[in-house]
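Students often ask why inverse folding is considered easier than folding. One informal answer: many sequences map to the same fold, so there is more than one right answer. In these notes we will look at a single instance of the problem. The structure comes first.
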């Protein structure tokens, strides 16, 4: 019905498929094409369907001319075969924007002479059949921009006798096409080219072969891309090129790409695989080149393999498919700039990533082999005997990881005249933690070595050993890396050394040395990444600082972005906290009385009798003793907890411990507005801010003292008219300032004593240097080298103020009680102790010598004076003047006795008599008496803090009978613990010394019993015993985190038990206090109920 060259347009306006095979019989169901014709779809893409048993188009032509059939913009589906070339000497089939779907075969030809197909921008979705199946004498196939889904292709040429005197030509061009198996089993090669040709020209560029599953139960073997050249009688030219192809995710019994070519000595030959990627295939590539003249070695032609990447390929299930990346099977090859990454070799060393079989000549240039996987074997290279291999240029085998010790490079001997040539830029690197072993039979030349046998393996280091540097085989020698014993603080697994929690490692020559980190700075898990891992965003030496653009958090080791640092609320919040501290220390006695009466007073209902009220001084002594015990206990607990590694503690308990520890250590409390006060906060600045509470309180007390003096001076300038009013005003003027100054003096003494641990810890931490490599760095911030200018000034302050401060409560209390020093001198000595301690020691020694020379006369004279005063007191008592005697003459007696103990005895008596005379006659003497009275009040307030809770002691050396100055020993205990915990580097030795100190402190307390009240002694003994136990726990945990005992079974459970016991011991006092408060409230409630019942009964 059509003429030669006609165009048939098929309209798709109705949107219904065309059923071309309806109402026809089987012999007549096909459309026979015997002339050139074109089909065009318009107004869409028309769908042409047929029966499954019918062939839609049959091309027949017995003439010599070629029939051209074209399909444009059509969908051809549901047929047996869309276009079959039958009984045609030649045909040309053009497909443009055409889809073949659900057909048994798309294009088929069994024995045509000249086949030409041109496929552009078309799609084949033959889920159960072939896309193209051609067997021709001459074949030309151009495929561009097309997609083949589960649609295999076979392009094959066969020998034809009629072409004996002609050239058989095969030309296959593929560009930008996709061959996708869609993860389904396709029992065929996804794209197979089997040429029998005199002239062979195949080029496949920028195409993808992916998701092909060719594993079937049958014995047939398939590839995703098969180029299998057959042996023609006379080959005149060969050109096979694979460029920029991507072969991925293919699982077959043969390699994903099988590349077999034939070369002729006298014919042009070019075969290449360039710029391609082979990834995740069950074997990637096998190449084989046959020579038509095998007797002529010079006739071997080179196959170029350039700039290809082979990644994550694995060995297949077939013995022929045991090489993951490239298998060279005969021929001559040049492999240049190729990369091999994480290809999984087989269990046998002969199944390497790259294998060179017999009669193969391979040259490697600038290739890189890398293995990071430890799932399977990582043998990288294997060459059989009778093969020639040359490594020229820089070739690197970088083995980053292995699943066990195994061969990585092997060449077995077979033929003496063929072997392995290695030039001087050849390297094999074993993984870190492995040592390299090599066996070889080689001859060394000037720039190369020639080996008939070479066997190189990487062997993992034994348990609890490590190798810092990587073992290398360079050219002909090894760097002789050996395994070393695991250092303390390190965790050696699989030959690698990693840091244990709270340790940081650094390199020293060929080994690793670990240093303990400041708490929370370094890795705190049991699986640190490396030997110098840091916590969070910390970095640098000892993880001392935060990363760029981040700031140290004030209350933790976390790093905070600078954008979140807001200091607007810091100063008001800090001032509020300082005022709370100041109010507590100014009125601590009243606060303690209120707490005791308000919370615990109701507990008296459980007693049958009322206890007699004690005097005020006794209550004050009792409260002072308990406060000292509590403060010392929590200060030492915080010191011990800061020396150990990570602790798994309950969040609530940890928060309670942190708050109580900070308050009692006089450190800033964790408040959200404090977390990041300034940007780019560094550890040194952070430590200074945290420990500045005590210094700020002293400054506030100084300001308050100046204000009181100014007010007092202003009140003195008031001049009333009459003397009576003047005396009244002067009395009121001197009354309240003296009392408030006494509070200031008491608060000053308390703060100076209790801030000692915090201030000493700050100073010592800024002087604590540790060796890191060849430098001494600050432990608090490893990025700061030691011996800075500020450290010299700080060292002078420590020597002049921190170290001698423990003598101030001892010498100062004794001399202040004896009126040998003033209150002002004692307060200044608390700030600058060294010169005053030297002066005080001199005064004590001088007075002791003088007292020893004049002791007899002084004692006799004091007895006479004492007897006269006692008689005077008795007479006045009989006359009803008891109060006057006690206030005047008895005070005079005590003053006289104090003067007798010095070498200025007579002068003191004269001074006292003179003061009595002037006090009665002059106004100046009245002011002097007020000043003496004020000094006496201030002195009493200070001595109440220093000596209040402690018992008396007898004369000892140059000290007379007095109250035990135990406060100095309390300061010394803190100093000793701080020195040991700060400057002893070895954790084990440090905690042993600390435990010894705790035992010594406990023993001394039990022996001396310094407190007046037995209850205070018992509580102190209990707290010291608890600290000793905690110190033992800390020692065990330091051993666990720093030594190898952590690998023993069951140790982790023991450490967890220790952590729970420690949590209980630390929180127990607070829990008991809360329990007593609840009990007190319950008692008050019962009391209220009882009163209500009584009232209702009346």
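Output (designed amino acids):
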């Amino acid at each position: 019905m059509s003429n030669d060259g006609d165009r048939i347009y098929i309209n798709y306006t109705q949107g219904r498929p065309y059923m071309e095979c309806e109402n026809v019989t089987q012999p007549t169901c096909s459309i026979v094409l015997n002339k050139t014709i074109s089909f065009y779809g318009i107004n869409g893409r028309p769908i042409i369907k047929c029966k499954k048993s019918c062939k839609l188009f049959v091309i027949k032509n017995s003439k010599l001319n070629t029939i051209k059939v074209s399909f444009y913009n059509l969908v051809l589906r549901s047929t047996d075969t869309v276009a079959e070339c039958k009984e045609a000497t030649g045909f040309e089939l053009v497909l443009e924007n055409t889809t073949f779907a659900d057909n048994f075969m798309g294009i088929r030809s069994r024995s045509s002479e000249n086949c030409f197909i041109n496929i552009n921008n078309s799609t084949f979705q033959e889920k159960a059949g072939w896309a193209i199946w051609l067997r021709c004498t001459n074949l030309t196939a151009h495929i561009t921009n097309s997609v083949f889904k589960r649609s295999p292709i076979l392009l094959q040429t066969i020998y034809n006798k009629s072409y004996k005197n002609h050239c058989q030509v095969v030309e296959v061009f593929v560009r930008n096409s996709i061959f996708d198996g869609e993860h389904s089993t396709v029992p065929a090669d996804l794209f197979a080219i089997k040429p029998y040709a005199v002239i062979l020209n195949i080029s496949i560029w920028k195409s993808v072969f992916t998701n092909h599953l060719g594993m079937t139960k049958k014995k047939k073997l398939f590839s995703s891309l098969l180029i299998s050249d057959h042996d023609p009688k006379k080959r005149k030219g060969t050109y096979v090129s694979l460029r920029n192809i991507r072969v991925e995710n293919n699982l077959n019994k043969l390699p994903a790409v099988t590349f077999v070519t034939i070369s002729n000595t006298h014919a042009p030959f070019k075969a290449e695989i360039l710029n391609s990627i082979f990834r995740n295939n069950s074997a990637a590539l096998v190449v084989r080149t046959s020579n038509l003249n095998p007797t002529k070695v010079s006739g071997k032609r080179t196959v170029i393999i350039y700039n290809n990447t082979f990644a994550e390929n694995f060995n297949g299930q077939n013995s022929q498919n045991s090489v993951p990346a490239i298998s060279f099977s005969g021929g001559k090859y040049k492999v240049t700039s190729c990369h091999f990454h994480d290809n999984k070799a087989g269990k046998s060393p002969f199944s390497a990533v790259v294998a060179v079989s017999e009669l193969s000549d391979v040259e490697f240039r600038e290739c890189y082999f890398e293995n990071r996987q430890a799932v399977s074997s990582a043998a990288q290279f294997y060459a059989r005997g009778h093969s020639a291999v040359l490594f020229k240029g820089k070739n690197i085998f970088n083995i980053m990881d292995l699943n066990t010790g195994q061969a990585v490079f092997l060449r077995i001997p077979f033929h003496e005249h063929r072997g392995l040539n290695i030039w001087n830029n050849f390297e094999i690197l074993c993984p870190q933690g492995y040592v390299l072993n090599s066996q070889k039979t080689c001859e060394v030349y000037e720039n190369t070595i020639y080996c008939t046998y070479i066997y190189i393996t990487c062997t993992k280091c034994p348990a609890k050993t490590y190798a810092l540097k990587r073992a290398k085989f360079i050219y002909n020698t090894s760097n002789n890396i050996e395994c070393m014993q695991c250092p303390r603080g390190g965790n050696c697994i699989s030959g690698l050394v990693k840091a244990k929690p709270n340790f940081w490692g650094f390199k020293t020559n060929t080994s690793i040395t670990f240093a303990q980190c400041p708490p929370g700075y370094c890795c705190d898990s049991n699986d640190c990444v490396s030997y110098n891992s840091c916590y969070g965003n910390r970095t640098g030496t000892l993880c001392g600082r935060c990363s760029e653009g981040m700031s140290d958090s004030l209350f933790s080791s976390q790093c905070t972005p600078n954008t979140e640092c807001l200091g607007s609320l810091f100063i008001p919040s800090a001032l509020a906290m300082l005022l709370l501290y100041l109010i507590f220390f100014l009125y601590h006695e009243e606060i303690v009385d209120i707490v005791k009466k308000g919370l615990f007073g109701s507990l008296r209902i459980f007693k049958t009798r009322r206890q007699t009220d004690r005097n005020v001084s006794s209550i004050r002594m009792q409260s002072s003793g308990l406060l000292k015990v509590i403060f010392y206990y929590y200060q030492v607990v915080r010191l011990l907890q800061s020396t150990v590694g990570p602790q798994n503690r309950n969040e609530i308990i940890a928060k309670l411990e942190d708050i109580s520890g900070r308050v009692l250590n006089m450190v800033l409390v964790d408040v959200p507005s404090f977390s990041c006060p300034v940007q780019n906060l560094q550890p040194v600045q952070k430590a200074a801010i945290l420990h500045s509470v005590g210094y700020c309180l002293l400054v506030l007390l100084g300001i308050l003292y100046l204000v009181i003096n100014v007010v007092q001076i202003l009140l003195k300038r008031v001049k009333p008219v009459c003397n009576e009013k003047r005396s009244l005003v002067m009395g009121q003027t001197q009354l309240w300032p003296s009392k408030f100054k006494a509070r200031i003096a008491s608060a000053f003494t308390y703060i100076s004593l209790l801030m000692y641990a915090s201030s000493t810890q700050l100073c010592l931490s800024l002087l604590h240097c540790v060796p890191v490599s060849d430098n001494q760095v600050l432990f608090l911030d490893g990025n700061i080298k030691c011996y800075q200018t500020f450290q010299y000034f700080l060292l002078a302050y420590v020597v002049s103020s921190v170290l001698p401060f423990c003598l101030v409560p001892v010498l100062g209390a004794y001399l202040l009680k004896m009126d040998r020093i003033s209150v002002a001198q004692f307060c200044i000595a608390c700030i600058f102790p060294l010169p005053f301690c030297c002066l005080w020691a001199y005064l004590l020694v001088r007075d002791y010598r003088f007292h020893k020379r004049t002791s007899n006369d002084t004692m006799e004279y004091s007895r006479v004076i004492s007897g006269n005063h006692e008689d005077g007191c008795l007479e006045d008592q009989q006359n009803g003047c008891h109060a006057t005697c006690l206030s005047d003459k008895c005070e005079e007696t005590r003053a006289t006795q104090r003067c007798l103990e010095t070498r200025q005895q007579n002068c003191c008596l004269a001074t006292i008599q003179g003061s009595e005379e002037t006090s009665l006659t002059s106004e100046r003497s009245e002011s002097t008496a007020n000043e003496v009275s004020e000094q006496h009040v201030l002195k009493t307030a200070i001595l109440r803090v220093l000596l209040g809770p402690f018992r008396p002691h007898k004369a000892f050396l140059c000290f007379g009978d007095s109250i035990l100055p135990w406060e100095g020993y309390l300061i010394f205990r803190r100093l000793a613990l701080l020195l040991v915990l700060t400057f002893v580097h070895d954790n084990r030795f440090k905690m042993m010394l600390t435990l010894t100190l705790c035992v010594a402190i406990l023993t001394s307390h039990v022996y001396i019993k310094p407190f007046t009240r037995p209850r205070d002694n018992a509580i102190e003994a209990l707290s010291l015993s608890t600290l000793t136990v905690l110190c033992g726990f800390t020692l065990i945990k330091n051993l666990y985190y720093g030594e190898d005992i952590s690998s023993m079974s069951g140790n982790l459970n023991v450490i967890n038990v220790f952590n729970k016991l420690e949590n209980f011991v630390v929180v127990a006092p607070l829990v008991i206090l809360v329990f007593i408060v609840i009990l007190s409230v319950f008692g008050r409630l019962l009391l209220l109920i009882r009163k209500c019942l009584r009232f209702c009964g009346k």
